[in-house]
Amino acid sequence: MARRKKIYEGKAKILYEGPEPGTIVQYFKDDATAFNAQKKDVVDGKGVLNNRLSEFFMTGLNNVGVPTHFIRRLNMREQLVRSCEIIPLEIIVRNFAAGSLSERLGIEEGTQLPRPIVEYCFKDDALGDPLVSEEHIAAFGWASQQDMDDILSLALRVNDYLSGVMYGVGIKLVDFKIEIGRVYDGDFQRLVVADEISPDSCRLWDIESGRKLDKDVFRRDLGNLTDAYSEVARRLGVLPRTPMVKPTLIN
Ligand code: UDP
Fold this sequence. Notes:
The chain is an alpha+beta fold. Helix content is 28%, strand content 33%. Strands 8, 9, 10, 11, 12, 13 and 14 form a 7-stranded antiparallel beta sheet that branches. It has a 5-stranded antiparallel beta sheet with strand order 1-2-3-7-6, covered by helices on one side. Strands 4-5 form a two-stranded antiparallel sheet. A hairpin with a 4-residue loop joins β4 and β5 (39-42). The longest helix has 24 residues, at 145-168. Bound molecules: uridine-5'-diphosphate. Uridine-5'-diphosphate binds at residues 90, 92, 98-101, 129, 175-177, 201-203, 215.
């Protein structure tokens, strides 16, 4: 078989040219990075779990009418998605204070926010993805006012969907990050949820115990990351059918 053309390699995923025009294959790696890639490791099985979990969330969003780039999962580590033009913003939605919001505003982690707060960061690793305002976004032309209205509405719909699904399995959705892409249908453009939705890009806390089930386990050295992600996958019923560690054969 001909070698596929690699389009881009990021910290956690590789993008390949897809089988049909307008499609891309997203390959989920086991690499974990934090603090703008200053902390790095390989976490066995993370890519498989994130591929499954992102499939689960994106399919759920498509089913409730929130458009995403997701087409279908191809195998353990790959999914087929619509190619889109990524808007250079990280859209962060917060329900409870944590991470950079707690540091910036001195609000204790876990404090419930009066309402969901949406923040925008400019996607630029060299600059450390700085927080930006809608003024910056408009002035530098990263997105139009119509795009911003659509992005806000998508972000809040994703928040409602994800919060509900997670509450249903005893997990609190503290915050999350999404990316938005533009797709073109003829002369029309529309916005879709792109990239991935997984415990790499969400903060997920067990409601009963407060146990962290997301990338903070890696960022803050709180234990085994695969165990935490597997717990999320197990509760949602999306653990891979084939075991990730081959059982030893005894004869
Ligand atoms: N996040 C992400 N990628 C980033 C930055 C943040 O997925 O490059 C997610 C992060 O996992 C958390 C939310 O966005 O769920 C808010 O992150 P925060 O601004 O608190 O930054 P952090 O504390 O992770 O530096």
